[in-house]
Write a structure and sequence with these properties.
This protein has one domain. Helix content is 0%, strand content 60%. A seven-stranded antiparallel β-sheet has the order 1-2-3-4-5-6-7, with no helix packed on it. Strand 5 and strand 6 form a beta hairpin. The protein is globular. The chain starts with a strand and ends with a strand.
């Protein structure tokens, strides 16, 4: 099942894509696939109006913040234009994007 979620992404300098980078607080769409276990996996993102496929999920982990009690699924992804980003999915099914370090 594909799902689309709008997220806000912080500023980042990306490579490729004609100088386009993740823009500060600009809406970004994430298309994800929910497997039979209900886990979501990102398949594509739309950055500054351009849809980019996720060509690889390099890592996936679940992070639990003790201070706030929040849990996030964190995905390090490579996009079709060569950029690497980190997508975070919170308990409320909201996605956040940031550049990979």
């Amino acid at each position: 099942m594909k799902k689309r979620n709008r997220v806000s992404a912080p500023a980042a300098a990306g490579k490729g894509g004609g100088g386009r980078a993740l823009a500060g607080l600009e809406p970004v769409e994430v298309e994800s696939y929910s497997g039979y276990r209900g886990e979501e996996t990102p398949r594509a993102v739309t950055i500054t109006g351009r849809r980019l496929s996720v060509t690889a999920v390099k890592s996936r982990k679940r992070v639990h913040l003790v201070a706030g009690g929040n849990t996030f699924d964190v995905f390090e992804c490579r996009l079709e234009d060569g950029r690497r980003i980190v997508l975070e999915l919170d308990e409320n099914s909201r996605w956040r994007a940031r550049p990979a370090s």
